[in-house]
Amino acid sequence: MEIKDKVVIITGSSSGIGQNAAVTFAKEGAKVVINYKTNKKGAGETAKEVKEVGGEFLIIGGDMSVPKKVAGLFTKVYKKFKSVDILINNAGYPHSAYIEKSDKEHWLKVFNDNFLTTALCSKEALSYMRKQKRGKIINTASVMGIPNGGRTGIIAYSAAKAAVINFTKTLAKQVAPKILVNAVTPGRTITPYYDQFDKKTMQSFIDANPIGRMINPQEISNAFLFIAKNDALTGTVLVVDGGYMLK
After folding, report:
1. Which side of the chain, N or C, has fewer Cβ within a 10 Å radius?
2. Under CATH, which architecture does the 7-241 domain have?
């Protein structure tokens, strides 16, 4: 797929990987839809960067685990751009808790943030993509969702991202060949989430990667871009983990 002039919706694009992806696709000439849940300031910063590279954008706030908010986002996008070409389901956050400390509310929150956002946005995107008879959906999973990749301290998050991977493959079977569905599974990537950890803990994360460093958000954005441009991929789960799964 040629990226220039395509409409790319990126959920959770007010910081981190999503923010970088928005700028990356803008550089390719895409029309970028910036979504945020609570970080309005961050969304503005994303828009500023997109504008600096000459990109066209639309900012839409809203919790993508709420069906009305999801429907509203897509309605606004189609009204402005008359197309929905690429959806990158990037919204999510790795809430921490061992199972002993978790409760039903924790599990529901984690699945709302990290799985239902993907399912609900994909469902809404398909209503437009089917009419267009084309489109691409790219889901942000996680290395923690791969078998043997999960961490006990973020057990609900690991389970939610495993669900994203299964959802990706199942949906890909259903909607091919006109609509292609894939996923990227990042390993430990430099994002604001890691600001909470001390130097010793960060070093342990680095040591777990055979490449000897954290992953750069641009490297994940490049994976999104590769999938978006390649029309021979569907049901693919592209692992960008710095070798973490080699352990």
Report:
1. C
2. 3-Layer(aba) Sandwich (3.40)
